[in-house]
């Protein structure tokens, strides 16, 4: 059964991972698990448990833009990619990230895309991690639902998070219910 999966299904999943970045503006939704919940409710911890990848943590809002974590089975390797907000045609790509540096690289990318304040943005960070024991899976971590605005969060933080969640969950819901 595992050999049949590796021979027949895995090449198709790998092809999906390769073309995913090119389809983001084409309104094509590819399978993924989107994690949604209240701020500081453990969404990132859940993703860490599923993926065995360390992600940024903190007491204030940490996930401030969508993080797409693409797991693949293969030789150990990690890379990060995100569009340059000043020049969308030129993406930032960093290859060969040490697994123990992933959280720091994601935090740095978040600060570049969102600034150092508590801003959120709908700018995607794509993190690809390959390991011999990894499942083929795409997980999307989103900022948490804000119930009470704190610190330097924008006045409309609740609306911003809601729009971001709806944007990323809409494809999943429409495919489930033929909306």
UniProtKB/TrEMBL annotation:
One GO cellular component term noted in the UniProt record for this chain: plasma membrane
Matching InterPro entries: Dynamin (IPR022812), Dynamin_GTPase (IPR001401), Dynamin_N (IPR045063), G_DYNAMIN_dom (IPR030381), P-loop_NTPase (IPR027417)
Single GO MF descriptor: microtubule binding
SMART domains for this protein: DYNc
Organism name: Symbiochloris irregularis
Pfam family, one: Dynamin_N
Taxonomic lineage of the native organism: Eukaryota, Viridiplantae, Chlorophyta, core chlorophytes, Trebouxiophyceae
Protein name according to UniProt: Dynamin-type G domain-containing protein
Superkingdom of the organism of origin: Eukaryota
All residue ranges annotated as the Dynamin-type G domain in the record: 27-179
GO biological process: receptor internalization
């Amino acid at each position: 059964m595992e050999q049949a999966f590796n021979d027949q299904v895995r090449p198709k999943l790998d092809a999906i991972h390769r073309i995913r970045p090119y389809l983001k503006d084409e309104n094509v939704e590819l399978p993924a698990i989107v994690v949604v919940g209240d701020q500081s409710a453990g969404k990132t911890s859940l993703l860490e448990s599923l993926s065995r990848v360390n992600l940024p943590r903190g007491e204030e809002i940490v996930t401030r833009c969508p993080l797409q974590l693409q797991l693949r089975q293969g030789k150990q390797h990690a890379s990060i990619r995100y569009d340059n907000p000043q020049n969308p045609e030129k993406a930032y790509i960093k290859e060969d990230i040490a697994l123990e540096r992933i959280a720091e690289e994601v935090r740095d990318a978040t600060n570049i895309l969102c600034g150092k304040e508590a801003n959120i943005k709908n700018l995607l960070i794509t993190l690809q991690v390959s390991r011999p024991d990894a499942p083929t899976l795409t997980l999307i971590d989103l900022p948490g639902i804000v119930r009470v605005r704190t610190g330097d969060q924008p006045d409309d933080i609740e609306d911003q998070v809601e729009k971001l969640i709806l944007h990323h969950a809409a494809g999943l819901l429409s495919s489930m219910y033929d909306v």
